[in-house]
Design goal:
The protein is α+β, with helices and mostly antiparallel strands. It has one domain (2-86): Roll (Ubiquitin-like (UB roll)). Helices cover 18% and strands 25% of the residues. The protein contains two helices and five strands; from the N terminus they run E-E-H-H-E-E-E. The protein has a five-stranded mixed β-sheet, covered by helices on one side. Strand 3 and strand 4 (64-65) form a beta hairpin. The protein is globular and about 30 Å long.
């Protein structure tokens, strides 16, 4: 099932400048793995070696934080949108 992934500015260089990508995936983790084919190195910036989403990254499916659902195992439906939001630091 195709899902759309919105790629934020800091990660676009890994995706050849693309602001979004469409992948086939049944879960958020599968979507991240599929995105790795289109944007090598991006998966390492989003997940740990164990496949957990890094603590400074927030992923939203259709506007809802995946940590309020099933985390990386959150199931996806045809047409869902995943938004990647890296933490902002400053002060």
């Amino acid at each position: 099932m195709p899902v759309r992934i919105m790629i934020p500015g800091p990660f676009r260089r890994l995706a050849g400048g693309a602001s979004e990508a469409e992948v086939e995936a049944a879960t958020v983790y599968e979507a991240i793995r599929a995105l790795e084919i289109l944007a090598p190195g991006l998966r390492d910036r989003l997940t740990t070696a164990d496949g957990d989403v890094r603590r400074f990254i927030r992923l939203y499916v259709n506007g809802k934080d995946i940590f309020e659902m099933c985390g990386a195992e959150t199931e996806l439906r045809d047409g869902d949108t995943i938004e990647i939001v890296p933490a902002a630091a400053g002060g």
